[in-house]
Amino acid sequence: RKRRFSVVKRIAAAAACVLAVAAGIVGFRAYLSPAAFVGLDVNPSVELAVNGWGVVIDAQAQNQDGEELLSDVTLQNKSYEDALEAFLASEEIAALGNNAYIEVSVTTDDEILADLIQQSSNQCLSASSCEGSCHRVDEETRESAHHAGMGVGKYAAAQLLAELDPTITVEDCEHMSMRELRDRIEAHQGEGSEQQGEGQSQQTGRSQGQGGHAGDGGMHHGHGETGHRNQG
After folding, report:
1. Between vectors from CA 126 to CA 125 and to CA 130, what angle results, nearest 5°?
2. Is the pLDDT assigned to residue 194 strictly greater than 70?
C-alpha cells in the first residue's frame, strides 16, 4: 500500500508540474501576443504592439526618423502609458517643440483595451507641449498604410489631403510632418468653407434682387458685410 501511495504521489506531482509548465507556456504566449497595434505619427512614425495587459511587446519604425528615435529610446517592455511618455520625451520629439502634432491610431478588436489606450493617450497628450489626437483605425486601413510604406495616421491624413487637393498625391505626403499635413488640410477646408459661404451669399443676393430695388439694396449690403469680414 505504501508503494502504491508513493507511486500515486509521484504521478500527481508530475501531473502538477506538467500543468504548471503548460500554464506557464500558455501565459507566456499570451503575454507575447499583440492585442492592439498603436501607430504614433509625428514625423517620426512608430508602431507599437501592445498585449492584453497593456504592455508594449514590440516597437517598429515606419520611416527613417522612426528608426533614429528607436535607436535612442527603448519602448518595449513598458506599459503603454510609460512608452508614450518616453516617446514624447525623446530628443526627436522635444526638438520640434510646440510645432509637433502627434496622431495616435489604435487598431484592435478589444473594446476595453481600446478605451484604456485612448484614455492614456489623451492624458499624455494633454500633459505634453505638442498637439495631437487619438482615433480608432480598422485593420484594412492599417494594412493599406503599411503597403504604402507609411504610418497609419500619416496615411489617413495623406488620403484626406489628396482628396482636398488633386495636385497632391499620397506619395507626395510621405516626407511631410503631421503638422504640415494638418496645416494644409485645415487651409483647404477653410477655403472650402469660404467658397461655400460666398456661394450662399451670392445665391441669397440673387434671390433678393428678383424682388426689385429693395432686393438690390439688400445685395449691396451683403457685399459690404463680406468686405468687412475680409478686412478683419
Report:
1. 60
2. no
Q: What is the pLDDT of residues 72-92, one digit of tens each?
A: 999 999 999 999 999 999 999
Q: Which of 45-59, 95-109, 198-212 has the lowest mean pLDDT?
A: 198-212
Residue 120 is predicted with a pLDDT of 96
Separation CA 119–CA 22 (nearest Å): 35
CA 88 to chain centre: 14
CA nearest to 38, candidates 24, 18, 56: 56
pLDDT at 179: 94
DSSP codes, the chain: -HHHHHHHHHHHHHHHHHHHHHHHHHHHHHHHS-SEEEEEESSSEEEEEE-TTSBEEEEEESSHHHHHHHHH---TTSBHHHHHHHHHTSHHHHTTGGG-EEEEEEE-S-HHHHHHHHHHHHHHHHHSSSEEEEEE--HHHHHHHHHTTS-HHHHHHHHHHHHH-TT--TGGGTTS-HHHHHHHHHHHHHHHHHHHHHHHHHHHHHHHHTT-HHHHHHHHHHHHHHHHHHH-
**Integer Cα distance of 34 and 11 in angstroms:** 36
pTM for the predicted model, two decimal places: 0.72
Contact in structure between 59 and 48 (CB atoms under 8 Å): yes
